[in-house]
Design goal:
The chain has about 230 residues and is an alpha/beta fold. It has a single domain (about 1-215), classed as Ribonuclease Z/Hydroxyacylglutathione hydrolase-like (Metallo-beta-lactamase, Chain A), CATH 3.60.15. It starts with a strand and ends with a strand. It has helices at about 50-55, 60-65, 75-80, 145-150, 170-180, 200-210, and strands at about 1-5, 10-15, 20, 45, 70, 85-90, 95-100, 100-105, 125-130, 135, 155-160, 185-190, 215, 220-225. It is built from 6 helices and 14 strands. The protein has a 7-stranded mixed beta sheet with strand order 6-5-4-3-2-1-14, with helices on one face. Bound molecules: nickel (II) ion and manganese (II) ion (MN).
């Protein structure tokens, strides 16, 4: 299993011979200007919510690759209006089996309008139970709902927002890591914009102090994921 970071909340997970792209926001991201969006392959595109900084390249990549695009009902309906044909709608609490494993759409405390102002349904995150169990939290505040994930899943790696202002900051992400019972955290949703710039050394130090591992990937960097 290889995880590649494309900046902000965008990751590519390669598992069981398929490529799963989360929250594609590359073209408008100045920090990701070295990434060639037209060379990214995807079999699946998972979108946590409708905000521009999670969906910007979804139509472009979806049309080129023919990937199955999975999001909530409202986001999928909007994407279909933009010309995407291969879509799968979900909603909160629902689990569906795919070739890479089971996928559950879970709660996020945030908002979700689409780039043209259309209603984007409620925002979410994904728990992927496959070769490993991976949680992509989307954009969210710290919420007690995360305890449910800790109680019912054995999460190997969690992608958590740490940039503060629009989502959890570092301190709340550390508490979230307790709630989901996973100490292997990969940070996201930081540094992209002025208001979410963080001190990476301070963030790593705080996670270290809490006996947790915070990984901050360079944009374009890939790592091998292993189960505990
Ligand atoms: Ni958002
Ligand atoms: Mn966002």
């Amino acid at each position: 299993m290889i995880l590649t970071y494309y900046g902000h909340s965008c990751f590519l997970l390669e598992t069981k011979g398929v490529k799963i792209l989360f929250d594609p926001f590359i073209t408008p991201n100045a920090l990701a200007d070295k990434i060639d969006v037209d060379s990214i392959e995807a079999d699946y595109i998972l979108i946590t919510h409708g905000h521009e900084d999670h969906i910007a390249d979804a139509v472009k990549i979806g049309k080129r690759t023919g990937a199955l695009v999975i999001s909530n009902y409202e986001v999928v309906t909007w994407l279909q209006k933009q010309g995407l044909k291969n879509c799968h709608p979900m909603n909160h609490g629902g689990t569906k089996e795919f070739e890479f494993g089971r996928l559950k759409y879970v709660n996020a405390v945030h908002s979700s309008s689409l780039p043209d102002g259309s209603y984007g349904g409620n925002p979410g995150g994904f728990v992927l139970i496959g070769e490993i169990t991976l949680y992509h939290a989307g954009d969210t505040a710290l919420t007690y709902d995360m305890k449910l994930l800790g109680d019912f899943f054995s999460i190997d790696v969690a992608l958590l927002p740490i940039g503060d202002n629009f989502t959890m900051g570092v301190e709340d992400a550390i508490i979230a890591s307790d709630f989901i019972q996973c100490n292997n955290i990969i940070g996201m949703h930081y540094d992209t914009f002025e208001v979410i710039k963080i001190n990476k050394d301070a963030a790593t130090f705080l996670f270290d102090n809490a006996m947790k591992a915070l990984t901050l990937l360079d944009i374009g960097e890939s790592i091998e994921l292993v189960t505990d």
